[in-house]
Amino acid sequence: MEAYFDNAATTRCLDSAKAVMVRALSEDYGNPSSLHRKGMEGENYIKEARKNICKTLKIHDTELIFTSGGTESNNLAILGAAMANRRAGMHLITTKIEHPAVTAPMRYLEEQGFSVTWLDVDAQGRISLEQLREAVNQETILVSIMYVNNEIGAVEPIEEAAKIIKEQNPRTLFHVDAIQAYGKYIIHPGRMGIDLLSVSGHKIHGPKGSGFLYVKEKTKLKPILYGGGQQKNMRSGTENVPGIAGMGQAAKEAYEDFHQKQEHLYQLKDAFVAGISKETWAQINGRTDRDSAPHIISLTIDGVRSEVLLHALEEKQIYVSAGSACASNKPAPSSTLQAIQVKRGALESTIRISFCPQNTLEEVNYCLDALKELVPMLQKFTRH
Amino acid sequence: MFKAFLIKYGEIGIKGKNRHLFEDALIHQIKYALKPVEGEFLITKEQGRIYIEALGEYDYQEALESLQHVFGIVGICPVALVEEEGFDQLAEDVIAYLDNHYADKNKTFKVNTRRARKSYPLSSMEVNAALGERILKAIPEMKVDVHQPEIMVNVEIRRKINIYSEIIPGPGGMPVGTNGKGMLLLSGGIDSPVAGYMIAKRGVKIDAVYFHAPPYTSERAKQKVVDLAKIVAKYSGPIYLKVVNFTDIQMYIYEKCPHEELTIIMRRYMMRIAEHFARETNSLGLITGESIGQVASQTMQSLAATDEVCELPVYRPLIGFDKQEIIGVSEKIGTYETSILPYEDCCTIFVAKHPVTKPSLKVIRRSETHLKEKIDEMVKTAIETAETIIVEADMAE
C-alpha cells in the first residue's frame, strides 16, 4: 500500500486539471495578449479560471492577480503594499510562525527601514488578539497573519483579527497567507475584512507554478515585476495560461462537496490521533480538535530523528515530511516549533502528516501500524 | 582563430622505454575528454609532443576546459594555423597574431622558429631574424629580449605554419591508466573525493565503493555520492561505483559491541568489504580520505586498527593535509559545493559521544567476536546485494 501524507508540501494534480492544461498547451496555445483568434482562445482559459476562483471566494473578477505561486503572492502582497503605502507609515506586523515566504520579505523590509512587530503565539500556535490590538498604531500600514500554519495546522482567528485591526486603524491593510487554508475552509475575504489573500495552486491539486493574490478593490499596491503590463500592470509577464487553467479547475473542484470532504479529512485526523494517543513515545503538537486544520498533524516522536523516521516510512511507501517540506533544504530548527516552545531535543524529532480528501482510513491505519512497528525499533538505535 | 593545440607533457617524457605506453595512454585520455566536445579532432603524436588539430568548426572554450582535466598534460598551447604562402605572408600573419592577441603591446619578445619541414627555403635562424625585424617595424612598442622575453613567439614550419605564444597550464600528473587501479572508499564528505582525485592524478584508474544505510541515510545522500563521483570522473574517467547496503551490519555492531568502538569496528567492516571488491576487480590497493588526527577514527592507532583487516595496501593521499588544505583542493576540483550539502552519511549517524581514540587491537578483536553468529552471513549478503553504478562525467557542466 502507498500512503502519500505530504499534501501540505504538494498534492497530486487532478486529472481534470491536467486535461485542461494539455489543451491549453497544445491546442489553444495562443498568447492572451495576441489580437488574433488564437490569442482570444488563450484568454478564454483565463476568464474561465478567474470566474471559477472568484466564485469560491465571492469576490469581483477585478480583484484577482494570477502569480507563479504562493511565494510570489506573499511577496507581491507584502512588498507591494509596503512600497505603495510607505508614506502613510513604516510599521508592519506579522507573527513568529509565518512561512519564510512571508518572513523573508518582512526581513527585507526591515533592512529597508521599516519596523516589524513579530507577534508571539501560545503553545497551540495561536496569536493573542490583545497583543495584536496593542501592536496596531497609526503608523501601521500592513498586518500579515497566516490562516493555517503549515507545520502544526494551527488556525488563526482571522475574522477577529481583521475586526481589531480595522478598529485600531481603518487604513491598515490586512494580508492573509491562506496557502494552507484555501480549499479547506470557506473563505470570503470581502466579508471577513481581508484586503489581500495569497493562494497557491499546487496545494489544492492544481499545477505547480500557479497561484493568485486576492486584492480588495481600491487597495494600494505596487507591482514587484515590471514589463509588458499584463494584468492591469500589476503583474507583467505572459500569463501562465495552462497553469492558470489547471488551478481554476482545481479551485472549482476543491469546493465541490466541500463539507463532505472537510468532514472526511477530520475523520482521518481523528482516527490518526486516536490511534497514536495511547503510545507513550508520541506527542502531538498543537490542537487536534475542530478548531485545528483538518489536514495537518504535527507529531513529535521521542528519541527518533525525524529524518530517519521519514526514510524508514518511505521504505514502506509512506510519505511524510520532517517539520515542513519547505524547511528541509536547510537543516535549521523550525521557527514555528520554537515559537510554540517545543523542547530543543524534540525539534529534530518532529514529523508532519498531511492529508488530502483522496486519502483513506486504510492508509491511516497502515501508517499507524508502520509507526508502531518502526518507532520502538528505531528508538533502540538513537544517537547518544 | 586557434585551430590546434600543442600538448606539453612533463614527467612521462622521462619514462624511458615505457614512454610510448604513457603517450598512448595520454592520447587515449585526451580522446575520451574530447568526445563530448562539439567538433572533430585529429590527434597525432610526433617528436615528443602531442598535437590536436580541429577538423572544421569546434568549441574552443569547451575543448580547452576538457583538456585541462586530463592528467599528464603540463601545458596546453593554443595554436594558430596559417597556410604556407611565402615569407611576406608569414610575417603578416605573425604580426596579425600578435596584434590580435596582446592588447598591451608594451612587451619584450623573441621569435623561436622550428623547421620540421626542412625544404623551407630559409633556415630557422634566418626566419627568427627576419621575423623579428618585421615585428619591430610593424609594432614599434615591442622590444626584443632574447634571454627573458615576455612573449615567446613560436613559429613552427610544418605542412601548415603553426604560431603560438601562450602556454595554459594543465593539471600535471600522469595519464590515468598508466599506474594500475585502486578502490576508493567514497563517502559524501569533503575528503574522499579529493583523495580519489589525487590518486587518479598519479595515473591510477579509480573504482569506488559507497556504504549506504537506509533509512538512516537518504536517497539524496546516495545521489550526492553519485554526483561527487561524476565530478571526480571528469579527471579520472568513468568510475565503477559499488553501493553497499550497510544498515544491517551497522545495526548489528550497534547491538553487540561497545558503542565507543562502533566507528572503528564499522570501518573495519567497510575495509573488509572494500577489499573484497578490490580483489574482484583487480584493484591494487584501497584509497581513503583520512588524515591523521582529524577525527577519533583517524588517529594513528585507529588507522592501524582499520588497516589490520586488509592485506592490500591502503593509500591515504591526504594523510598530512589540514582540513583547510583539503577544502582548498576540493574547491579547485569542484567537489566542495556538493560535499557540503547537508545529507547525513553513515559514518555520522551513530557516533558515540566519546569514541575511543586509542583503540587496542586486542580489545577490538575481542569485541568483534560478539558478532560471530551472524556477521559473515551479513557481509556476504551486503556484497551480493551491492548495486553497481557506472558513473560517467557530465561534460556538459
Describe the protein.
Chain A has helices spanning 15-26, 37-57, 70-85, 100-111, 129-135, 158-168, 189-192, 241-254, 258-276, 306-315, 335-339, 344-347, 361-380, and strands at residues 3-4, 64-67, 91-95, 115-119, 140-146, 173-177, 196-200, 211-215, 282-285, 296-301, 318-319, 321-322, 350-354. Chain A is of the alpha/beta class and 384 residues long. Chain A has 2 domains: 3-11 and 257-380, Aspartate Aminotransferase, domain 1, CATH 3.90.1150.10; 15-254, Aspartate Aminotransferase, domain 2 (3-Layer(aba) Sandwich). Chain A has a 7-stranded mixed beta sheet with strand order 2-8-7-6-5-3-4, sandwiched between helices. In chain A, strands 9-10-13-12 form a 4-stranded antiparallel beta sheet, covered by helices on one side. In chain A, helix 7 (189-192) links the parallel strand 6 (173-177) and strand 7 (196-200). In chain A, helix 2 (37-57) runs parallel beside helix 8 (241-254), helix 3 (70-85) runs parallel beside helix 4 (100-111) and helix 9 packs parallel to helix 13. The longest helix of chain A is centred in the first third of the chain and has 21 residues, at 37-57. Chain A is globular, with a radius of gyration of 21 Å. Residues 324-328 of chain A have low confidence and may be disordered. Chain B is an alpha/beta fold and 397 residues long. Chain B has 2 domains: 2-169, VC0802-like (2-Layer Sandwich), CATH 3.30.2130.30; 181-391, HUPs (Rossmann fold), CATH 3.40.50.620. Helices cover 40% and strands 20% of the residues of chain B. Chain B contains 14 helices and 15 strands. Chain B has helices spanning 19-34, 60-67, 87-101, 124-138, 191-201, 219-236, 247-256, 262-280, 300-307, 323-333, 336-339, 346-349, 361-369, 375-385, and strands at 2-8, 40-46, 49-55, 75-82, 108-115, 143-144, 151-157, 161-164, 168-169, 181-185, 205-212, 239-245, 286-287, 314-315, 387-391. In chain B, strands 1, 2, 3, 4, 5, 6, 7, 8 and 9 form a 9-stranded mixed beta sheet that branches. Chain B has a 6-stranded mixed beta sheet with strand order 14-13-10-11-12-15. In chain B, helix 6 (219-236) links the parallel strand 11 (205-212) and strand 12. The two termini of chain B are 24 Å apart. The interface between A and B is medium-sized, with 15 and 17 residues.
